[in-house]
C-alpha cells in the first residue's frame, strides 16, 4: 500500500512541477511577444483636442431669475417636508 501511495505522490509532484514550469515559460514568452509586437508596431500617439475652458456656444447660460426660482422651490420643498 505504501508503494502505491508513494507512486501517487510522486506523480502528483511531477504533474504539478510540469504545470508550474509551463506557467513560468508562458509568462516569459508572453512578455517577449509583447516587447516584439511593440518593437515592430509601435503605438501611435494620438493628439487629443484641448477643450476650451470658457463656456461653449452650445451651452446656454443660467439666468439669475432661474436660479432664484429653483432656490425658492428647494426651500419650499424642504420646509414642507420638515412640518
Automatic annotation (TrEMBL):
Q: What GO terms in the biological process aspect are recorded for it?
A: sodium ion export across plasma membrane
Q: Return the EC number.
A: 7.2.4.2
Q: Which cofactor does it need?
A: Na(+)
What would be an example GO MF term here? Answer: decarboxylation-driven active transmembrane transporter activity
Q: Does the keyword Transport apply?
A: yes
Q: Is the RNA-binding keyword given for this protein? A: no
Q: Predominant location of this chain?
A: membrane
InterPro entries in the record: Na_pump_deCOase (IPR005899), OadG (IPR023424)
Q: Where in the cell is it found?
A: Cell membrane
Record GO cellular component, one term: plasma membrane
From the record, give the transmembrane residue ranges: 12-33
For this UniProt record, the keywords arranged alphabetically read as follows: Cell membrane, Ion transport, Membrane, Sodium, Sodium transport, Translocase, Transmembrane, Transmembrane helix, Transport
Tell me what reaction this enzyme catalyses: oxaloacetate + 2 Na(+)(in) + H(+) = pyruvate + 2 Na(+)(out) + CO2
Q: Which domain of life is it from?
A: Bacteria
Topology within the bilayer: Single-pass membrane protein
The top EC class, named as a word, is translocase
The Swiss-Prot or TrEMBL record describes its family as follows: Belongs to the OadG family.
What is the protein's known function?
Catalyzes the decarboxylation of oxaloacetate coupled to Na(+) translocation.
Q: How does it assemble?
A: Heterotrimer of an alpha, a beta and a gamma subunit.
Q: What is this protein called?
A: Probable oxaloacetate decarboxylase gamma chain
Provide the species name. Answer: Marinomonas ushuaiensis DSM 15871
